[in-house]
Amino acid sequence: MKDQQIIRLHVPEPSARPGDKTDFTYLHLSPAGVVRRPPVDATPSSTSDLAYSLIRVLDGDGQAQGPWAPDLGTAPMRAGLRAMMKTRAYDTRMLIAQRQKKISFYMQCLGEEAIAVAHARALREGDMNFPSYRQQGLLLARDDVDMVEMICQLMSNAKDPMKGRQLPVMYSYKRAGFFSISGNLATQFIQAVGWGMASAIKGDSKIASAWIGDGATAESDFHTALTFAHVYRAPVIMNVVNNQWAISTFQSIAGGEATTFAARGVGCGIASLRVDGNDFLAVYAASCWAAERARNNLGPTLIEWVTYRGGAHSTSDDPSRYRPADDWSHFPLGDPITRLAQHLERLGAWSTDEHEATRKELDAEVGAALKKAESYGSLAGGHMADAATMFDDVFESVPAHLQMQRRQLLGSN
User: Fold this and answer.
1) pLDDT computed for residue 343 by the predictor
2) CA-CA 20 to 30 A from 162: which of 19, 258, 343, 412?
3) How far apart are CA 400 and CA 391, in angstroms?
4) CA–CA gap between residue 208 and residue 192 (Å, rounded)
5) In sequence order, what are the beta bridge partners of 157?
6) Closest CA to 160 of 144, 179, 146
């Protein structure tokens, strides 16, 4: 598009060897407010241009512009900003806890907080998320999810709701519409489509929201899910979080250098949007648009959220080996927390002093939750989930041979 700016950053080319850092043109940046907003009942084919542009609401001065600017009061925006700050404080503390050997493994969503937090506000009770492992904001944006319980899951201790059966960060909360996370990539897309189809067959108005990263679009499950979603008009939102990186490979390895990831939905007859994932208002508006389509039986929507993974892929990763240490600070879409705070300041609904006070308050809240969770046990301190619970929740009536094995295990402890 003629109104787009082409951004060049220092990232590896697809042919680069590990450790090489060279220029690569990869982001076409549309100015805020210029991308059109089609009606919710638009045909999928009529949205094809939106898969190649970038929906943005907030400009560089923190002003909301254009047809996608949502009619959202200051109170919901303040709550959204607080939830993003809470998510970042949580990530920071958990990373430190992992380095202190209290947790075996952790994955941050640094720089991606707006996507999950704003999307959560567009969903209703009863809707179901099928998340990947960087959507903790979906849980932390809610008031009914206990942060202590989440940390206990990370520590696999005696109060772990998953009873030590899942890798840390792979939460599961049915009551919060958060399906069990799977370490296998792209499986959640097929699961979400099936869940959405079942909801439609029952005549329900509940919708599903599926989540994967850019690299997982190379999996066959991704393409199978798109086909089924299109053919059966599944009430599902298909989220592709393009944070530019897989574990240590740039998004072009998954085909991102040839076209946008949103364009893959166009080819399957699915309404497709490409959105500034660091713009809280744009994320909320696009999520509401897609949710309304799904809820009114107008078909699925594929959304590519353009963002940047500010931290390491996980605590097992060292990103300095394949990208510059200050790479995130040069990403042209900026920090989602800073951008929303700037917008609220323009409206007179936020201030630097309040921001700092809120940051300290949330850090203390997370610290207190960590201390309480640790009292139930940690990787360093012991008191882990009882190994005998491996026999629970499998059979309605435990078979005799498993009862014997359980007695043997308990007798050896």
Assistant:
1) 98
2) 412
3) 12
4) 6
5) 384
6) 146
3-state SS string for 186-206:
CHHHHHHHHHHHHHHHCCCCC
**Which token pair is 337?**
């927390």
Q: In terms of C-beta distances under 8 Å and separation of at least 24 residues, what long-range contacts does 160-166 make, across chains too?
A: 160/385, 163/385, 163/389, 163/390, 163/392, 163/393, 164/384, 164/385, 164/389, 165/390
Averaged over successive runs of 10 residues, the pLDDT of the chain (413 residues) comes to 48 48 55 95 97 96 96 97 98 97 95 98 97 96 96 94 91 96 90 97 96 92 96 97 84 67 94 98 98 97 96 92 87 95 98 98 98 92 77 90 90 68
Q: Which domains does the chain have, with CATH numbers?
A: 5-382 (3.40.50.970), 383-413 (no CATH)
Closest among 323, 324, 290, 320 to 305, alpha carbons compared: 290
d(CA 157, CA 381): 10
Nearest to 32 by CA among 348, 334, 246: 334
pLDDT for the residue numbered 387: 79
Which tokens belong to 118? 């704003």
